[in-house]
Structures are given as structure tokens and as C-alpha cells.
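Example for reference:
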Amino acid sequence: MNVHNNYSVRGDFPEDARTLTVHVRQESVMAAREARETFLAAHIDVVYSRLTGNYAQFLRLDKLVAAASDLIEGLIPNSTELEQEARLPLADQTGVAIDQMLFLAHVLNHRTSGEHLCQAMRLPRADSVKRLDEFSNGGNLVLAAASLERIGKTCFLTLNCPDVLNAEDERSLDDVETAVDLALLDPHSEVVVLRGAPVAKYGGQRAFCSGINLTRLQEGKIPPMWYLQRELGVLNKIYRGLAQPKIVPEAFEETQEKPWIAQLDKFAIGGGCQYLLVMDSIVAGTDAYMSLPARKEGIIPGAANLRLQRFVGDRLARQMVLADRRIACDSTEGRMICDQVVAPEQIEAAVQDLVLQMTSSGVVSFTANRRAFRLAQEPLDLFRRYMALYAREQAFCHFSPALAANLRKHWRDTRTN
């Protein structure tokens, strides 16, 4: 982290907050990081309470880290340091954002602040709320990287980056989350179908998702906080629904949620496979496959390590994550994840039939049952603790020399597989 001449602490904090700023100014990167961690371990509840007005405000990740940088200089990198770093390829970056992720790891590891942050990230985005009337009245929204269309009682959310096989990056994340918000807020629909846009490489046929855009990752354009926004925002909203701006016990939380169906055309690679693990039903083509190439990419595949074993067991989950095992949807193992596997030309009809089954008698009991499954399988406290570890470990993976080497070696093959 860059060295500044002056540091200050805004507000009344214990004396070691001022000692922290001296360490950051005077010590090596590792010693300064250790000083930050010692301070955060002792005072994260005080810091988070100050940042949120004694938990009265819900701050998304970007607002939270900006406020933290301003509250105690040197605690985490400021915007200037992060912008300078972002101009460099990943292999040339120094890793100042690690300290940002370590701060968020401490927030998540503290039960009260961690649950509060998880709830903040499940509130509808402000720009989503502004677009609600537009979508509710017209039933159609086209963004740069995602589109949303209502047909009957169904919202079709399409991942729309066909030039990169519907991969995801820093340019697509906000669009996808906005579309997720509107699909859940829309009062005229009952079910959401997630699918990929048609891709020229496959003759205009749809392809689901090829995971993280490794080109943008290699170029240093995807910051490590991207992973947390995706997990705490997009995927957690699909899995747990939209939150309300009030604190209540998880079992009594009033969520806005709907059944989700994945239309799995061609492949679900990396982050695409992670989407499948929060779906209520998956319809796949017989020519489709799933993979989690975490070893090649050198990162943790989101919450797949938490969720995948519920579907396929521990051994197969480890083979997929640690040994790049590819699973054909039309196989015994594939059917542990996919609910239906049909001929590619029949997949859209199968999705329509499934929607009809779900909506013919209403989805009230469906939503109640998905809440019950969720509380039994992945209570919020378990998810929060996993995300604390994920924030820490993913930060170090992101800036490791091994990741840069893996990208140089594998990124072309991964994009085109």
C-alpha cells in the first residue's frame, strides 16, 4: 500500500487505532497487514457500528469499503490506490486490494455485522427500484449484458454476452443483479427462467454460461471484491430472495422470492455451474456438460465448495473442484444435479411444461418449501462463516503468482471449451 505522510482517525476509537496508522506508515507490507488484522479482530464490531450508524444503515460493499477507508486512513486501500492498481495487468498488480478483502472477511466473521452485511447485499439495488415501473408495465428490459422478458407468468432472464460465450466480468455483474432484482420484484410473474443468449459459434443456438471472463481477469479488470458482490448479491438473492430493510430472525424473515429454473444449453462452466447449485429445477440438453475448472483458474469456485456436495457427495465434488472433472448432463452423475435431460431441440418445450406444472396450482407452497429446505441445508450463519473464509482465501488466490501462471497457460482453452 502506498505510504502517506499523515494519517488520521475520525472519531473516538481506542488508542490502538492511532497506533495502527503509525504501523501502516512505518512498517513493511506484511507487518502493516498484521497490525490491521490485530486491530480488526479486536474492534470490527465498533468499526462496523460506526460505519452503519449503529446498524441503522444498510451499506453495500462498495459504500462500506469507501466509508471504512475514510473513517480510519490506512485501514484499507483508498480509491486512488485501487484505481492505480486497476490500470495494470493482474500479473503486475501488487495486491493492495487484499487488505480490502481482509476487512470484509472480518466483517463477515463477526456474527452481528456479518449478518447485517449479508442482508444489505440482498436488498434491491436503488437503480432496480427505479426501473420497476418500466419493467412492470412493459414486461421487457434490455441491458448491455442481460435482458429480462415476461411471457405469461414467467420472467426469462438471459445472460447476454454471446461474444465471450456468455462469460461474466466486471461489466456484466451490475446488469445481471438488476435483472435478478426486477424478476423478483415483478408483481405479474411467478417463476424465473435463467438462460444464456444464442451464440454464433454454435450456429445461433443458446449456450448457458462459460464462467468468469478469463481475458478480463488476466487484464486485471476484475477486482477481488467482484467475487463477493456476485456471491452476496446475485447468487444469494436467487437462493434466499430479496430481503426487507429490517432485522428479524432468519426463520421469520419476509423474503421476496420465486422458483428459479435453469435452461442449461451446451455448458455450465465455472460460475455457470455455480448458478445451477441455487436453482430449484434444471432442464439440460443431452449434449450439455458441467465443470468447475478451479484448478486451472487458480481460484475458489464461489460457494460451490459449500453446496456441490449436497448434490453429488464429497468425492465427486472434490474431483470436480480439485481435478477438473467434467460431468456430462446425460450421465448418472449429471442427473444428480439436473432434473430433466432432454434432446437439445426439446429443451425449450420442456422448460415451458415445467413452468406450467409449477404455476398451475400457484407457487405459495413451493416458496414455503424452498425456505424450509434452505434453513435445513444452509442456514445464514453457515453461509456467513463460509463467506468470511472465502473473502480471505480468494483474495490471496486472486493475487498469487500461481493464478497469473495458470491464466497464461490455460485461459485460451478454457474460453473455447
